Amino acid sequence: MTSPAQAPARAAGLAVAFALAIVYVVWGSTYLGIRFALEGGWPPLSAVSGARFLLAGGAMYAFLRWRGVAAPTRAQWKNLLAMGALLLLLGNGCVVLAEQSVSSGLAAVAVASVPLWMGLFGAMFGQKPTRAEWLGIAIGFAGVVWLNAGSSLNASPTGLVLLLVAPLGWAFGSVWSRGRDLPSPFMAAAGQMLCGGAMLLAAGLVRGENPLAAAPTLHGTLALAYLAVFGSVVAFSTYVWLLHHVRPALVSSYAYVNPAIAVALGAWLAGERFSAHDLGAMAVILAGVVIITLARVLRR
Questions:
Q1: Would residue 173 count as lying in a domain?
Q2: How many domains does the chain have?
Q3: Is the CB of residue 67 less than 8 Å from the CB of residue 137?
Q4: Of 7, 15, 99, 142, which is the most exposed, with the fewest CB atoms less than 10 Å away?
C-alpha cells in the first residue's frame, strides 16, 4: 500500500514520464508532419515554417501578456531576433526545404548531430569538453560522414547541404544564447517564434511563395495545424517545464529518441524505406550523442 509520503513522489514521477513522452513523440513526429504539410500543398518557408511560428508565437505572446508577464526589452528583442535567425530560420527552415527531396526519417537522423556541433561550438566559447565528450563527438561525426557518404542523401545534393546547415544553425544558436539577456523562458520562446516566423515568412515571399494562393488539401492543413499547436506550443512548453523539474541531461535525451521515432513513423505511415547504410549511420550518430550525454551526467 502506498504511503502518503510516496504518493507525491509517484505523481511527480508520472508527470515527468508523461512530459518526456510528449517531447519524444510529438517532436519525433514533426518531421513526418512537415512532409505531410508539404505534400498537402503548403509552401515550405512561408506557411509550413513561417505562418505556423507566427501564429503559435503570437498566441503564446498574447496569453503571457494577458497573464501579466513582462514584455521583452529592446535589448532582449535583439537577442531573440538573433536566436530566431539561427534556430528557426536556419535550423527549422533548412529542414523544411530539405524535406522536399529527402525523407522525414533521414532529416531527423541528420538533425540528431546537433549535440555534436554544440560540443564543438561550446569548446570555441571556452566550455572545454572532457575526454569522454571528445570521444562522443568523434564517434558522432564518424556517423555523420558515413550518412553523407553513400546514403540516399546523395540523390539530393541540395537536401544534403541543407541538412548540414540546419544542425549548425540550431547548435550555434543554442550555445550563443547561453548567458544572454533574455526574458522568462516562456516569453523567450514566444518572442523567438515571432521573430523567426517573420523572417521565415519574408524568406518564403522572396523565394516567390504565395501562401494565400495555395490550394492545400485537408490532410495538409491538418498536418500544419498539428505542427503549430502540438509541435510549436505544446511540446515546447513541455520542454521548458522539464528544464525546470529534471536534470538537463535527461531532457537532452530527446536528441537521440526523436530520430528513432521519426524513422519508425516514416516507415509506418509514409512507407519510407531505409537502407542498412542509413540505419547503421544513425546508430553511430546516436551512439556518439549517448556518450556525450553520459559524460555530462558523470561530470556534474
A1: yes
A2: 1
A3: no
A4: 7
> How far, in Å, CA of 201 to CA of 82, rounded?
16
How far CA 27 is from CA of 63, 89, 260, 275, 297, in Å, comes to 23, 18, 11, 23, 23
Tell me the per-residue pLDDT of 37-79, one tens digit each, with 9 for 90 and over. 999 999 999 999 999 999 999 999 999 999 999 999 999 999 9
101 alpha carbon, distance to own chain's centre: 19
Q: Say if CB 279 and CB 124 are below 8 A apart.
A: no
Question: Which domain covers residue 145, as residue numbers?
Answer: 29-299
Contact in structure between 56 and 233 (CB atoms under 8 Å): yes
pLDDT at 9: 47
For residue 42, tell me if it sits in a domain.
Answer: yes
Closest CA to 197 of 41, 87, 98, 97: 87
Weakly modelled stretches of the chain, pLDDT under 50: 1-11
Domain assignment present for 22: no
176, three cell numbers: 550563443
Helices (H), 40-154: 52-66, 74-83, 93-98, 104-111, 114-124, 131-147
Prediction pTM value: 0.86
Q: What is the pLDDT of residues 6-37, one digit of tens each?
A: 444 444 678 888 888 899 899 999 999 999 99
Is the residue at 53 inside a domain? yes
Q: How many C-beta atoms surround the C-beta of residue 240 within 10 A?
A: 16
**What is the number of helices (H) and of strands (E) in the chain?**
14, 0
pLDDT reported for residue 155: 57
Residue type, 66: W
